[in-house]
Hints:
The complex is a heterodimer. By secondary structure, chain A is an alpha+beta fold.
Amino acid sequence: MQQQRKLVRAWVDPDLCVGSAMCVSSSPEAFRMGPDGHAIYVADTADETTLLDAAELCPVSAIQLIYEE
Amino acid sequence: MLTVNDDLLDPEIIQNPSPYYKMLREHYPCYWNERWRGWVLTRYEDVYGALHSPKMLADRITPFFKTRLNDEERERFALTYQVLHSFVVFLDPPEHTHLRRIFSRAFMPKAVATMRGVVESYVKDFFDQWEGRSTVDLNRDFAYPFPANVIASIIGAPREDVHRFHGWADALTTLLLAGVGEEQRMDRAQNALIEFKAYLRGLYDERVKNPRDDMMSWLMEVQRNDPTLTPDDVLHSCILLVNAGHETTQDLICNTLTTLLQTPDQLSLLREKPQHMKTAIEEGLRFNGPLKGTMRVAGEDMVIADKQVRAGDRILLLMGAANRDPAKFEDPERFDATRYPNLHLSFSHGIHFCLGAPLARMEMEIAFNALLRRFPKMELTSSIQWDPRILGRSIQPPINLRLD
């Protein structure tokens, strides 16, 4: 069985992000819109359920979840 | 000074918009078109900026009804207003945010992936009927019925009712994408909306009794737990989905395939290396996307490319021109099936980014892989005539292909 790894943070790929702001509306504590119209991850701690939901809702799958090595 | 042609439906511009776009980009990036009575933006940077700006309002329905119609017309077309005004594409935050979040769940990439089998079987059915024929009409024999069948399956409408969707969607598209010479287009659209809504109401009532695994049932489930979502929201949104998922995909198929058939080196590259299909489809979107433009209304006074734009002015954002801006794309007039990255604006950008983009991309990939594999000798035998539209980019049927 695969060992459960800890989710550390999320990363928004600026080459994929289209600024739909879905992540900002579903997880306002974790994402914010940057000045160039792309979303950025701004949280200090990662709530796995919230981040998984944001990643799934992204219309262009631009949100990557980064786990502990 | 150059004279600018203000007739956006001039046959020369309709058949080949590129030189016109280039002239505007280079000399008049923010241009007041007196005939259209609005500003026209053509540079990538400005179109991108406008699509991302909270000062640009998407509700162009309310100003239209308030300023272009008289009291009698406003009363007569009240239902059209009510339906259009609830479309998520014409809503601004905060109303937009709520509705968009609900529908995003139905169209998120994971949900769309569950439709793969359905899409594959439709593609197979249509192309099985092409086998053994020497000529087909790409539009009538595939591009027109295929997306309508897919969207009907998603909503939960029976396949035998799909032909009724076509008429309703056509009437609405003529209204929204600025068809010309259609005096009766508001009446036609309203009649279509009345019939369409009554039809969906029937499906809805039936699902109340017998929920199934389709979007209508799913939306009703959402509605039960969310008092802000009304049955009208559900019905109107289904009308929007049928419309949005219908002709845009049809045009994307026709525009991309005909472009490829006229660019033989890129077509043979794709036949040899189908792994480039994903980038080829994005290039199809960039090169001749189904929408040349979209409209916004300025929410406040602002300056764009040194021009003073006033609150309430309407603005035409020409994605078709932005997509060929050399400041953003290298060699933009060339169709390059391997272009990457390709940050075209054909699905829009910002909060109105096309909800159906993952579905459209999947439909295209499945259809084009099958087309190229099954019909290696396919040739275009019709000459391409673009339909006179301000916002849409659509080829007049028939689009005849020789298969053998």
